[in-house]
Design goal:
By secondary structure, this protein is an alpha/beta fold. It has two domains: about 140 residues, Rossmann fold; about 170 residues, Dihydrodipicolinate Reductase, domain 2 (2-Layer Sandwich), CATH 3.30.360. Helix content is about 35%, strand content about 25%. The protein has a nine-stranded mixed β-sheet with strand order 14-13-12-11-7-10-9-8-15. It has a six-stranded parallel β-sheet with strand order 3-2-1-4-5-6, sandwiched between helices. α4 packs parallel to α5 and α5 runs antiparallel to α10. The longest helix is centred in the last third of the chain and has 20 residues. The mean pLDDT is about 95.
Length: about 325
């Protein structure tokens, strides 16, 4: 059943990510921003000046007074469950910033509550809306790389003081865990992790991980909060060559294996040789805009969100397997 628009949108938490959610909703005709909630008075005043919407220090009051149709939740991870449960109990559709929750058990409760309440629960795995990633997925599905041997994900940058409740595995690795299964169409079956805490007061800030997928692909994770510049890159090596993605610039390159020339048998004899470097033409778009548009469309058309609670919950589960491996110094079967 199609929902009548415009819908009323609200945002809980207007820090670094939440204020961008507010900006996007404020520009939408289908679901314009009506209110935001945050305990930070200065942040609220900034949003009120920019978008002329109602502001609240208590999101419970906002939900009761404004009765939004949908809400984005961009609070610290340890508060995700409480905020989402409050919204869903009132029949409000929820878009949750990634990760879904800090623990698997809390995530399971939210998925079940959304099902019982009949509301949408979407989760912000934003790279799934990156135009370069979408183009890469089309190329892989068309067989342009052939069999994938290895995927190397690098997500590194400076330490973010705003994050104190989780480490890099829950906060960042959940991106790559979801992406590797999405791009390959294959499940992770085992993980091994080396995790370290160098400067973070309570949580790990460096992860080196090795994943094995059901189809034989090997995944390598290089993730930290110790690098003085932000790098977001993905490379995939396969029979026909290598794809390289820069998430930040939305660039997609293909490095051709010149020896292959379509002859699989010849590869074993000839090996690999540098061929053409091909830059794909990508139509750039802000992933957050695409992500929120997709969420609103799912609500309006009563369809399943692109990344729903169950899929996001699997990323949390895999992240905890990495943490378990790091603690126990052994391979963990999934």
């Amino acid at each position: 059943m199609t929902v009548v628009t415009p819908l009323k949108a609200a945002v809980i938490g207007v820090g670094m990510m939440g204020r961008n959610h507010a900006r996007v909703y404020a520009q939408m005709q289908q679901a314009p921003l009506v209110a935001v909630a945050d305990p930070d008075i200065a942040a609220l005043e900034s949003i009120a000046r920019a978008y002329k919407v109602h502001v609240y220090t208590d999101y419970h009051e906002m939900l009761q007074q404004e009765k939004p149709d949908l809400v984005s939740i961009a609070v610290p991870t340890w508060l995700h469950g409480e905020a989402a449960a409050a919204a869903m109990s009132l029949g409000v559709h929820v878009f949750m910033e990634k990760p879904l929750t800090a623990t698997v058990s809390e995530g399971e409760r939210l998925v079940e509550q959304a099902r019982k309440a009949g509301v949408k629960l979407a989760v912000g795995h934003i790279e799934r809306f990156n135009p370069a990633v979408l183009a890469l997925k089309r190329e892989l599905d068309a067989g342009q790389l052939g069999r994938i041997f290895q995927i190397h994900a690098r997500r590194v940058g400076p330490f973010p003081p705003r994050i104190s409740d989780v480490g890099v595995v829950i906060d960042l690795a959940t991106h790559e865990l979801n992406l590797l299964e999405y791009l390959t169409g294959s499940k992770v079956v085992s993980v091994f992790a080396d995790i370290e805490r160098a400067i973070h007061s309570t949580h790990e800030d460096l992860l080196t991980g090795i994943l094995k997928l059901e189809n034989g692909t090997v995944g390598i994770l290089d993730i930290n909060w110790l690098t003085p510049t932000k790098i977001r890159e993905l490379s995939l090596i396969g029979e026909r060559g290598m794809f390289s993605v820069n998430y930040l610039t939305q660039d997609l390159f293909f490095y051709e294996n010149d020896y292959l020339n379509g002859n699989w048998e010849g590869m074993a004899l000839m090996g690999v040789s540098e061929g053409r470097k091909i830059r794909h033409n990508i139509k750039r778009k802000e992933p957050l805009v695409a992500e929120i548009e997709a969420f609103v469309e799912a609500v309006v058309k009563d369809t399943e969100p692109l990344i729903g609670g169950e899929e996001a919950l699997r990323a949390v589960m895999l992240a905890h397997r990495l943490l378990e491996s790091g603690r126990e110094r052994r391979v963990i079967r999934v």
